[in-house]
Amino acid sequence: MKKINCLIVEDDSAFQKVASLMIQKADRRLNLVGVASTGKEARDMFNRYEIDIIFLDLHMPDMTGFELLDEIELQEDTQIILMTGDEDAAIKAFEYGITDYLLKPFSGIRFRKSITRAIESIQKENQSGSPENILLKKTLQLSHTRNKEIKPISSRSSKLGYTYPLLSINLDYENEHIALDVLESAEKEGLLTGEFVDYIYSCNNCYNSLLHFRESCPKCQSTYLEIEELVHHFSCAYVGPVSDFTKEDSNEIKECPKCKRILKHIGVDYDKPSVMYSCKKCDHEFQDPHIKAKCNDCGADTRVERLVKRQLKKYKLTKLGKDAAVGKYSINLKGFDELNDIINKDYFLRLLKNEIGRKKVANFDSTVAALQFSNIIDLYQGIGEEGQKELIIELFEHVNQELQSSDAVIFGDRITMLFLFTEQQEEVSKKMLDSISERINELVKDNFDSFELTTEDALMLIEEQKTPLFHLKELMNSFEQVQQDG
Amino acid sequence: MVDFVTYWTQEGFVGFFRVFWFYILFEFPRFIMMDYALLIVYWVKSRFGEKDYQTAREEFLSAKPLLSIIVPGKNEGKNYYRLIESLDIQTYKNFEVIVVDDGSDDDSSTIGKSLERQGKIDLFISHKERGGKASAANTALRYARGEFIIHIDADSSLKNDALEEVMIPFYMDSKIGAVGGNLEVRNPDQNLCTTFQKIEYNIFIMVGRMVTSSLGILRIISGAFGAFRRDALDQLYGWDIGPGLDGDITLKLRKMGYKVQFEPKATIYTSVPDNFLKLAKQRLRWSRSLIRFRLRKHNNLFMPFSTFNLGNFISVAENILFNFILNFFWYLYMIDIVVNFTQEILYILIAGVLLYSFSKLLQYIVVLILSKDWKQKLKYIIYLPGMVFYTGYYIRFVRTAAYIKEIFFKSSFDDDWNPMKTSIQGKKLEENIEKVFNRAG
Questions:
Q1: Reported ipTM exceeds the 0.95 cut
Q2: A242 in reach of chain B (CB within 8 A)
Q3: What's the predicted TM-score (pTM) here?
């Protein structure tokens, strides 16, 4: 039974004793390795021992708890339980990824709850129970025991056109492309080394690789085209399609319509400088057709330049991969956390960049907005990690349904929602924001014992001269101002 | 100075005539007299022909025919934007733009395709193999949908009413098959070379062609800016290999019975060579075409066949006489002067410069009278004495060199203005034709 090492960082000696007692009583697995009164002591201890949980007070003689967190190298699964009397610190605390937050004074029951949560977190990391991790582990095991490379096999029934043994069959057709993500992620983690096999192009709507490629008319998009080579007759400078030069039945003998001479040798009497397409639907004549790919599954007809291009690789296990296969190393793939898609500041910045680009070539208003839920931390404390995740996902989905398809919403962090309202005037956007805010309030009230959510909002027009980051900062700054005032 | 005056007062009119007979017999009538005759004709026409012009204009604007603007060229990509911009501001809007890139090896293809995507060019055709100006023009003709074809050089830009003005003559006389526009130099103030060319264009192209056009003996619709009836071009199956393909097709149209007209109101701006070496090469190429087409290919114009036509005969004969024959004759004249007047050569030189400068001034006055922008053209008068040497010596020498090279060495076929593959075939074709006619005749 593996011990869970704990560290108390607290300058009040009385409180130190209380905390130590509580840790000892809470769970036998917990092992208190030390008590630090200053940040420096805490740092030294953290470097000396492998710490799993830190009980951190914010206010210490030589530095704040945050400064300490900046200085020490936190492991991904180190749990931090913040203890402080300072409520406003909570908002900042989430930026550091703390596990829990205890507001002094707190009860023994509350303390035990937080410890339980912290232990659960640790265990979960160890178990690495997400489906992608399990799937990968099985694939690694297969490769290790059979001593075979993980190779893609050409398969007509597979969505990508290729299938990876074990990995692909365990994914349903919809999600077969995730196999590539899993393997790519595993390579990044150092479990595999990849060697290039091929590139594949997939439909950018549904990732299907079975596509029908054909040329289309740039004007009317029809694929009903005819192509003809042009012939240039040197001696008389006549240029026309091959059909100008051939007689009714045969297309071999070429007689020049202008000077009536027979064309004998290409390169000597004549050559073919280019081709010409003609669209049978709209009569348009052109040289460069658009090449389009029609998806066999979803019917989307996209230009080939926009298809999704992915690298197909074959993989070998690394030493670490072999260790993972036999269970010595626990797999924990990054990037498959569900919340990663929902709490994603970068995504917002990317969207904003695109919108600014769009705005430069057109004339319309677009706004960005933010809703900050200033007291939601209290709620999070009550419902725990899982509950928090569920609430965030639910809020996200709910708001998404309210929005128009061209608008977007994403969480900037656990307490702030960011919005993009395209092609809307400021007043309209404000109204939408208000109604969304109201709905969220109702939702929370209904589901969480009439919890009254306090919300701050900020809204601004997109300025095409400014960067996306500027907009984000402006929005976030307006919240801080309100706090200062209040 | 005194000696100079004394000498000439001694010589009197007879002496003057003896020295400057070349000018008095040939140059004065051809240039000064004809130009002033034209002025009178023009004045008469403008007083009484205004009604016709307005009627034709209305007819044209209500018919609103589709014009196909064709722009063949190689490595002209950098000029596309300027040309397209000048087309955007045209007073007449019903046209399509077809640009042909004849085997460019720069980024002309990229520029053209981008403009096509933006809708600024209606059809951009790119040949990966160079075929020559004629084949490029014929490619555009093959895919043109307009009733009239306007052939423009890529490095030109049109004045905003150029399309309208070049089209009106077609509606004044249905027998007109082609209309040539006026060329103005875009960069006249760049250096001495370009300034001389500007004056030259004004005197010889603008006024010169107005003269020949009103006499019915216009011999060239410039490739830089020419409008043609589409059905006329179709009958000819387009252009034949150049250089000089614009003069060649003009002649063919005349042989078919069409009239060709010069319209000075339709203006296009073109860049000219900016140093004397480049200029010489350009003129060598122009002059060679006289030999090739007028003397060889179209020499049936001189024979009393049933196809004989006085107007055609005179237009070519005039060209041959004044440009070719007189060019060589001038050397004889020079020998005459140098041999017989060795002592007084200085006086003759000075008098010559004065005489020719005055002559040029008379010519330039015609230009000023006939130009709307005469105020801007006024300042170039100071260059006229320099023009004497420019046309009198420099251009003359260049022409002579060109004629000699072409007559004896058929060098136009070796010129890389056309790709070798077409030149070889062209040469073969002409040799075959000669053989056939020799056998028959």
A1: no
A2: no
A3: 0.64
